[in-house]
Amino acid sequence: MVHMKALARGYVWWPGLDAEIEEWVRVCTLCQQARPEPPQATPQKWESPGKPWARVHIDFADPVQGQMFLIVVDAMSKWLEVILMKSTTSLALIHALRRLFVTHRLPDILVSDNGPEFTSQEFIQFLADNSIRQITSAPFHPASNGQAERMVRTAKEALGKMSEGDWNQRLGSFLSRQHTTPCSATGCSPAEMLMGRRLTTRLNQLHPDLNKEQSERNPPQPKVRMFEKGDKVFARNYTGGHLWVPGVVSEAIGTLMYAIQLADGRTWRCHIDQLRRRWAKDSPDSPTVEPSESVFQPPNLECGKEVAQRNHIGNR
Question: InterPro entries recorded for this chain (predicted)?
Answer without folding.
Answer: Integrase_cat-core, Integrase_H2C2, Retrovirus_Pol_polyprotein, RNaseH-like_sf, RNaseH_sf
